[in-house]
Amino acid sequence: MISTEKFYFYCGMFRTIKNLLALFTGSPPAASRTDLPETLKLIFSRRSCRSFASGDISPEDIEAILDAGRFAPSTVNLQTWSFITFDRPQWQQTFERPIPFKGAYAVVICADQNRLSELFSDFAETPAINMSFAIFNAGIAAMNMNLAAEALGIQSIMLSETGRTGLLDTAFLVEKLGLPEGVLPLTTLVLGRSTLKLPGIPPRQPRAAVVMPQRYQPECKDMLRDWFDQMFIGFKIGHPLSNFDKQLAFYRKKMLEAEQTVRRYFGR
Ligand SMILES: Cc1cc2nc3c(=O)[nH]c(=O)nc-3n(C[C@H](O)[C@H](O)[C@H](O)COP(=O)(O)O)c2cc1C
User: Fold this and answer.
1) High-pLDDT (> 70) share of the chain, %
2) Share of the chain above pLDDT 90, in %
3) Separation CA 225–CA 241 (nearest Å)
4) Does residue 23 have its Cβ closer than 6 Å to ligand 1?
């Protein structure tokens, strides 16, 4: 007979091992189907890459990726985005450091209300709605570019923090890139070549917690325990020397600073 204490200890161990395994082998259940079209295979195998090799990307491929962004759908076809592009020397010149993760090319993706500012003046009393649409549209364009890159065999990652590359460094990027009023830098899409085989897909929340037939299901919160454990284990493996609480404090401070700047874009 084992004691209650030991029982809970072994249960905890079992969960940790199960979640560790899930972390390294994770893939969406739908990916195991054999009849998937290429586009879906691409979506299920896409990964964020954090280590690029020295290879370059051809101008034709860059053009195709940027056009995939331009041809994304948008609210009333307003195309409320701007893409500020950099090759390695241009990034170095602007930021005095290499592209994060030694990428070959970078695109700062902005929600842009400036280009259509005359049109938006007709909607002056709805700044939060206007900006939300602009952000949503730019996000879709970003994802179109991300998938276009994958289809061309080019790896990528979107960044909003690492290397001062997005929303959390809005004030910095506004100054560095000369962004006018109404242009909010959301994320940098870093593109490059990688020869690394990436480990399992980072844990996804369970389908039942996310997909809600007919009505919102508040009770889904309980389903997040394994996902949260896997995220935590992933953090520990990825940052063995980091202190989780210190990291949280760091992000909280950075986000509070960014909050003050970004609020202006929502008219508050
Ligand atoms: C808008 C956006 C911003 C992100 N910012 C960062 C970042 O600053 N640093 C980073 O290492 N990863 C960043 N990521 C990558 C996410 O961590 C990654 O997408 C997530 O862990 C899931 O992994 P996967 O893309 O390989 O499926 C960002 C992703 C998105 C979509």
Assistant:
1) 90
2) 64
3) 24
4) no
